[in-house]
Amino acid sequence: MTKFALLAAAGLALAGLGACSQKAQDETAQAANTTAADMDATMGAAVNDVDAATDNALGAASDRMDDAGNRMDNAAADVGNGFDAAGNDIDAD
User: Fold this and answer.
1) Among positive and negative, which fits the CA dihedral 60, 61, 62, 65?
2) For residue 54, what is the DSSP state?
3) Tell me: the pLDDT tens digits for 41-92?
4) CA distance 57 to 51
5) Residue 7: CB atoms within 10 Å
6) How far apart are CA 70 and CA 40, in angstroms?
7) Is-contact 43 3, C-beta < 8 A?
8) By the 8 A CB rule, do 32 and 17 touch?
9) What is the pLDDT of residues 9-53, one digit of tens each?
């Protein structure tokens, strides 16, 4: 949306320069093109930053989920071992 607004403004500026010299028109067009290129580069960098942050956040969440699953597995194994030990004590009596 911002890109569209910038291009529309540049187009209006170019239209308003109809009475200006060809050199002024060329310089204005070059400035508009440079601004659009800078904007594209900035938006591309922002997208890359958001993608990287998302990947990091999802990776951290995945790691936490894996850790929680491992802890639950260990707790279940501990409970099973406790029952086995209790059964062995009963059998020994």
Assistant:
1) positive
2) H
3) 999 999 999 999 999 999 999 999 999 999 999 999 999 998 888 888 787 7
4) 10
5) 14
6) 45
7) yes
8) no
9) 766 666 665 556 778 778 888 988 898 899 989 999 999 999 999
Beta carbons within 8 Å of 17's beta carbon, 6+ residues apart: 24, 25, 28
User: What are the b/e assignments for 39-70, b being 16+ CB within 10 Å?
Assistant: eeeeeeeeeeeeeeeeeeeeeeeeeeeeeeee
Query: What is the dihedral sign for C-alpha 86, 88, 89, 93?
Result: positive
- At position 87, the amino acid (one-letter code) is G
In the chain the first and final C-alpha atoms are separated, in Å, by 80
CA-to-CA separations, 4 to 1, 11, 80, in angstroms, rounded: 5, 10, 64
CA dist 20 → 26, 48, 73 (Å): 10, 40, 77
Residue whose C-alpha is closest to residue 15's, from 31, 34, 28, 2: 28
Q: Which of 39, 28, 29, 30 lies closest to 3 in space, CA to CA?
A: 39
